[in-house]
Write a structure and sequence with these properties.
By secondary structure, this protein is of the alpha+beta class. About 15% of the residues lie in helices and about 45% in strands. It has a single domain, classed as Sandwich (Immunoglobulin-like). It has helices spanning about 5-25, 40-45; strands spanning about 30-35, 60-70, 75, 80-90, 95-105, 110-120, 125, 130-135, 140-150, 155-165. It is elongated, with a radius of gyration of 16 Å. The model is unreliable at about 15-30 and about 30-45 (pLDDT under 50).
Length: about 160
């Protein structure tokens, strides 16, 4: 991966972390979507396709994480450190052109989407992380970080939340 692309992704993660902390996170969680091989049951039962575990892209595994270093990793207070991270893995043995979409949702419902297309080598994983100390001026509330990765086979997604008290 080029240095310029690494810097761009690091900047995006930093931006998400800063925006997330300035706006206010809620229950801090880590979510990893387990992608399944193409599932013939989905074609036969449309209700199953609504299950996010079954509707994931079999080529891409994603995760999203917002965690506090406080006593409860799902909750942060002033002075705690919050780590914001995401991960995308190409589970194939071929090169993929992956559209990465990160969405930070604020307590009042505003969302900031960031999108870019990245070439992924076979079995490559991208997993940037940023850690920020919660400032005293940070509004209290719930934040959500959603990671989506898509290619020709569809979309995989994961969402994490954290609460700032």
């Amino acid at each position: 991966m080029s240095t310029n692309l690494r810097r761009k992704l690091s900047s995006i993660v930093l931006l998400i972390g800063v925006m997330g902390l300035i706006a206010a996170p809620a229950f801090a969680t880590t979510a990893t979507s387990t992608q399944n091989p193409e599932n013939p049951e989905l074609a036969q039962n449309p209700e199953l396709a609504q299950n996010p575990e079954l509707a994931q892209n079999p080529e891409l595994t994603v995760s999203a994480s917002l965690t506090s270093n406080g006593p409860n990793p799902d909750v942060a207070t002033v002075g705690n450190q919050v780590s914001a991270a995401f991960s995308v893995t190409n589970k194939t043995f071929k090169f993929l052109k992956v559209k990465l979409r990160l969405v930070l949702t604020f307590p009042a419902g505003q969302a900031i989407p960031l999108s870019l297309t990245i070439p992924f080598a076979p079995t490559q994983t991208l997993s940037p992380q940023v850690t920020i100390t919660v400032p005293d001026f940070l509004p209290k509330g719930v934040y959500q970080l959603t990671t989506e990765a898509s290619d020709a086979k569809g979309v995989s997604s994961a969402t994490a939340t954290i609460t700032i008290l």
